Write a sequence for this structure.
């Protein structure tokens, strides 16, 4: 079965949407934040811990799993769900972002991207067909088309060329796609140029994908530009298909982009920040290594309902992180993932109540400790 | 309340004992293996995971907790149980072994041991009184007397001197001990000299400790010598008090020393080995990094009932350890701890059935894949 997106409600004052996605591995509500399990494990966490955060879906990286352990081993294990003991929905990316951000030197041709294996130096070629073949074998619930993720800054000329290539690659991937239990998303590129985003959306929609991703964000662009990119994409995407904004997970960015019509998000930040001692609170991002927490026998956040906040103090986590004990990273990862998912739960509530702008106003006031001009 | 040791049964053919220890944080059966939570955390595991291995009691290190976060912070948190969210029995060592093995340069005087803080170079002095004061504040269920752990090799002359010092230190510690909810153990030293072990036991028994530890083992001595040291200690210890063999956790050593009358054991090996990819099986110790496990979709050990063996394959754990994902270390730590505790469960059963020598015979045959001469 392909995934089904049900649009349940539109927020009165914005483009925010409340929805539900049915998959072969369960149904979840949107907006939703997706924890990242790069190498078939959400760093430091067990599948049960990920689920206890009320995660609806997780992401795994095609690029990493292609190189280690290899898609054939995952396939022989019975697919990604069985391999990693996770029976909830899983989305795989195309490998495109990683090839562009991690693998150097690279050479982009019409055929695909040539680059060196970061572990053994072997010459590799990732093509749209290969990306789909790998993902078909990984057997995730949702696969991504192979796209070119254009960095920032860039020229309009280059983006024009690149969008056309991304469209040709999307078509090539769709033509070889062969897994009836997997859904395939098209990826909208076009940087900050509305006409290019519009063109890309229109061409992808003609190919009739099961959902649409918004790419070219989280590459170093200013926030205002990111929000514009999302606006220029959502505006031209159909109501009845899910919209996934790739690589974005900053709390305020989740809020701003939900307001612009995004349904799902992913980002490594909650687990990466955890490894450096950072934790989110409604009053801003803190670092548990701060000396003031040495004798702070309260939880990370009073209103949080996560496992960590139920059972552990800042003093203990401060000690663990200082001593480089992995339980510390794990406790912070649980809290940070739960924080972002709790944020999406609150956004869902705000959409139901048609007060998402008020929610944003109050969030910013508290998170950044600053007044903002108005509630719009 | 002080701990209570109940001797339930002696095995017919050996000195092996079946017992039960009551503490303020629960009762557990002996023989028992104790996982080590050096820095107030059993490396990579949550308290729930430690308990799920059927652990009866865990150990925490006084030396490490003294240096980080400091006993006063643990005390302010409400003691070690609250600090680390572990409501089962906890034993603390005296810091003696760590001062001798980790802290260099050191200077042993009658007063105590002078050494440098490994983290900041500060000059420190650990005395029998200080060790007890720290442990009283940590508020573990069972505390250890501060002893001198003599290394291997050594001269009889030095061991003679050292045993007398250890006895004077035991007395000094007992005199300042001040925590009515904590029990205090004396430590038997004397290396491989039966008369010195006997003398040490007799003098400690006069001081009337709540239990007795056997020290001077796991310092590089040959196995035969270790077993002799244990024999020469257990022989002179009272039946109605618990016997704890410090730092020993090799499966065959657990079996041999249970046969000689030991009740509890601790060792960092199950978690340390896990971090390097090793796992125990009844057929010997294996390394999951071995290429043959790359496509092995079976559990670590068929007959194991641990969380890891219930849900994960060698192929997946191979992948995790190769990719340095901490979930891999965690899954192997769970298995290894459960393995050693399962071993003590089987030994308890063998004591009940009076067939521990047969158990040893079969264990050795399978674990080392070699025939042994006879069943005695």
């Amino acid at each position: 079965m392909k995934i089904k997106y049900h649009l349940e409600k539109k927020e009165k004052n914005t483009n925010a949407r409340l929805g539900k996605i049915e998959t072969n591995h369960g149904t979840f509500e949107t907006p939703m934040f997706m924890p990242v399990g790069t190498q078939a494990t959400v760093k430091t966490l067990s599948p049960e811990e990920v689920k206890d955060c009320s995660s609806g879906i997780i992401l795994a990286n095609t690029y990493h799993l292609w190189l280690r352990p290899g898609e054939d081993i995952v396939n022989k294990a019975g697919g990604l769900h069985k391999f990693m003991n996770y029976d909830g929905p899983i989305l795989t990316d195309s490998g495109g972002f990683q090839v562009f951000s991690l693998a150097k030197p690279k050479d982009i041709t019409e055929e695909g991207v040539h680059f060196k294996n970061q572990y053994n130096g072997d010459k590799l070629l990732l093509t749209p067909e290969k990306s789909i073949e790998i993902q078909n074998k990984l057997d995730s619930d949702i696969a991504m088309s192979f796209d070119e993720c254009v960095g920032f800054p860039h020229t309009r000329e280059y983006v024009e060329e690149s969008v056309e290539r991304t469209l040709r690659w999307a078509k090539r991937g769709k033509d070889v796609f062969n897994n009836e239990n997997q859904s395939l998303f098209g990826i909208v590129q076009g940087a900050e140029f509305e006409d290019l985003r519009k063109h890309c959306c229109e061409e992808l929609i003609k190919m009739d994908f099961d959902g649409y991703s918004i790419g070219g964000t989280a590459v170093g662009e200013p926030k205002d530009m990111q929000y514009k990119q999302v606006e220029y994409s959502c505006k031209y995407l159909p109501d009845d298909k899910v919209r996934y904004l790739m690589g974005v997970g900053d709390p305020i960015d989740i809020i701003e982009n939900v307001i612009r019509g995004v349904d799902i998000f992913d980002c490594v930040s909650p687990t990466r920040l955890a490894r450096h001692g950072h934790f989110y609170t409604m009053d801003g991002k803190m670092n548990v290594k701060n000396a003031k927490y040495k004798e702070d026998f309260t939880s990370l956040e009073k209103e949080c309902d996560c496992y960590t906040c139920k059972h552990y103090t800042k003093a203990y986590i401060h000690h663990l992180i200082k001593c480089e004990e992995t339980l510390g990273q794990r406790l912070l990862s649980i809290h940070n993932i739960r924080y972002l998912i709790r944020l999406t739960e609150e956004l869902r509530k705000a959409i139901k109540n048609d007060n998402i702008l008020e929610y944003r106003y109050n969030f910013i006031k508290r998170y950044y400790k600053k007044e903002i001009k108005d509630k719009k």
Remarks:
- Residues 326-352 of chain A form the longest helix (27 residues).
- Chain A is about 40% helix and 20% strand.
